[in-house]
Amino acid sequence: EAPFTGAWLPENPFSNLYDQGDNTSPVNGIWTLAIKDDGQGFTGDLINWSIAFKDNYEINYSWSPTNDLSCSDCPDPIADPSVETTYTLSVTDIYGCLVEDSVVVRRGLIGASELVDSVSCFGFNDGAGTFSLTEPGTAPYQIEWFDGIMDSIHIDLTAGIYEVSIQDASGCDGVVEVTIPEPTVIELSTSAVDLCPDASGMGTVSVTASGGSPGYTYQWDANAGMAMTQTVSMLSAGVYSVIVQDANDCSATDMATITVAPDIEVFLLGDTITCEGTPVDQLVASASGGNGYFNYSLSDGLGMDSIAMDVIPGDYQVTATDQNSCEEVLDFSIVDAGDIVLDLNLVNPSCPNTEDGEATITSADINGTEVDLSSLSFSWSHGSGSPTSVTQLPGNTPITLSFVDENSCQSDTLFQLETPLSFSIVELENSSVSCFGGNNGSLEISLSGGVGNLSYSWPQLGGSSLVQTDLIVGDYLLQVVDDGLNCPPLDTVFTIAGPDEIMIIDTMGFEGCGNEEAGFASLSLSGGTSPFEILWSNGQSGPELQNVAPGMYSFTIQDANACDTLGEILIPAVDSIFIDTHSDGVDCREDTDGILEITVDGANPPYSYSLDGENFITNPQFVGLAYGFHDVHVMDSEGCIFTYDDGFVSGPAPFSIDLGPDQVVQLGDNPLISIQITDGQGDGTNWEWNWGLGDTERLNCVRCTIPRVIEIQESQIFNLTIIDDAGCIATDDIEIRVEKPRLFFVPTVFSPNGDSFNDLLISHGDGRATVDVFRLYDRWGSLLFETKDFSVGDETIGWDGSFRGQDLPPAVYVWYASVTFSDGEVLDFKGETTLIRLPFFIRVFQQTFFFFHLISFPFC
Questions:
Q1: What is the pLDDT of residues 661-698, one digit of tens each?
Q2: CATH topology for 656-739?
Q3: CATH number assigned to the domain with residue range 744-858, chosen from the 4 options 2.60.40.1080, 2.20.28.160, 2.40.160.60, 3.40.50.1000
Q4: Helix (H) or strand (E) holding 203
Q5: Coil vs helix vs strand at 375
Q6: Residue whose C-alpha is closest to residue 286's, from 335, 328, 324, 314
Q7: Which comes out higher in pLDDT, residue 807 or 195?
Q8: What is the CATH number of domain 577-649?
Q9: Predicted confidence (pLDDT) at residue 23 exceeds the cutoff of 70
Q10: Which of the 8 DSSP states describes residue 699?
Q11: What is the spatial order of strands in the sheet that 544-548 belongs to?
Q12: What pTM, to 2 d.p., does this model score?
């Protein structure tokens, strides 16, 4: 219940009450206290109220003197004086309160530099260390080393880092680290060149030193003649020691050993015996012993490598040289094994058709020297028996005897046994069968000679004629007997030849994509007797059938023997094709997210697909398509292209808006924008309206179809974009051009006669403009009247023709006005007006007929 007393916090957050660092503090200004009770008809009086703010307590710092300080107006500067300095701090708050204090800053022991003597040799303890102060404190100093020594110099130190504590007379402490270095250990590397097996006093030893203090000297032992050089030569096998001393007289000892290399042995890989004087294909030289790897040299131009090719019989040398230039020579010879000559005892077969011949090796020799037959191996192409004697040999047949000697040389001997033939058989005629499967072959035989009477027979044909006709392709046996010999019949086979069957390999196809004459066929022939003649049923000839329609075509093939072969071939027609499409339509009419899927049946799969007829793909689905019809092109495996022009991608009706025609209005008008919306998906409740351009704060509504622009000030373009429920976008612009006529007029004549008509000199024009100042002057420039801050056309504000309460006489007066229009533009105007005072009857006439001309003169 009233009265209400107490203290309350602001309704908004406290952070709104103080400066955010951007000079936007809302503290300064007008504060409003709003009081509201629970009732609807609040009445009452506010007795008093106040508002209080807590001041920010500011502190200002000032140091003196300012030299050698990191800052002079902060509470915690860093001081770095070169001498002892007293600094005074003055602290002042915003109320003028002052506090001062002082502090003395002394220069401490800031640093020191080390002075050391290095350890002379690695591992020694003859190092020494001291230091000098680079920024001294206040003498005297107290010095203590790590081990309690209180002197500035420390000797007999090994290599390492040592800490020295220093305190001056002012109590300032400092620590110096003294590093005692030492040279690295002396490293020796010795080498020795070993002796060749047959050499003496040709060895060499050498030493290489690193580490320590360079400037080395060398001292070899007595075995090396006390030599003082890095390398010593002309030494025998043995062990040699060396002492190396560096510039600090530090020394190291090492040894080198010279040895005698093992004997070098050279040998050959490969045959050194050749057969019948043929070259040896390859010889490879190799060596062992010595020192390391070998280089090889072959004599007589065989080369500088270890491999010799195609070496003919003769005497040669190979030299092997190791990495110490030690050599060993091997002499070798390539020997020809010589030719083997065999002596054979031959026995001919007893009958022409019996295999009872014999052959025996009686002896063998090489270059006139007899060879033991057991040292040879033999192989016979016919017959059977022991290695040196065979029987059951045929007559009139080449027989090969192969033999290999102990050097693996192989030779062949060819011989033939004679058959005791008493008669002769002559084939007078042999006519081949002309066509495959025919029987027009023939034979004519002649017999002569013989010991007794000759008789013959054809076991397969019968009869006793030596002339046989109507024969088919095959072998025919003729048996002849001489009754003067005690031998079985002699068999002789005669062959009737003939052509092979004509084999046909055909290919056919159709190069077109319909029923046009684009078919072709080709025949490839084998067998028969070439050349061939080919005649097709459509009159074409030759193995190629060209440019024919689909269908069956027969052909006749005739070879050089007039043998005919018949056949036919089918030229296939292209299958018909069926094309259909299914689409997943676009979301919005202007989008390109449609999908078209193609279904094909017929023609020659597999298929490829295209929408432009040029770029084909194997995927039947096309994405990213716009609304409308699309030509679909399908190519089959034969390259035939089929076009389907009904590939339709569906979509919604086009979504659009129209803001109407552009408008021309006057400054400060309130034009209407009439929005026409066509189609769109959804009922519009959830549509998104976006005004992208224009002074939208002047619109009286932003989600209505007839918004009004309130008091438009500038020409501008308004842009509206609406997004429907499917995300489809419609947009349009309207330009509203604002004309700005600067209308301000003052009458050129007025009559302040008290008749309530034209008694005041008032302004006319744009009623939304404000007259900042309006002044009247007489012809001599004296200010007679001034008024400020009133609306143009206000009939209550004007000059009544008086000055200081006295009516002025009729005359011409000058006026001046400064006017601010509704868009903020300020213009100055000036002009003249005539003051007249009329008698009563003229005033009556004036009220009936009076008019005046309004004119204004804006300043340029």
A1: 999 998 888 999 999 999 989 888 889 999 988 888 88
A2: Immunoglobulin-like (2.60.40)
A3: 2.60.40.1080
A4: strand 203-210
A5: helix
A6: 328
A7: 807
A8: 2.60.40
A9: no
A10: B
A11: 503-510, 519-526, 544-548
A12: 0.33
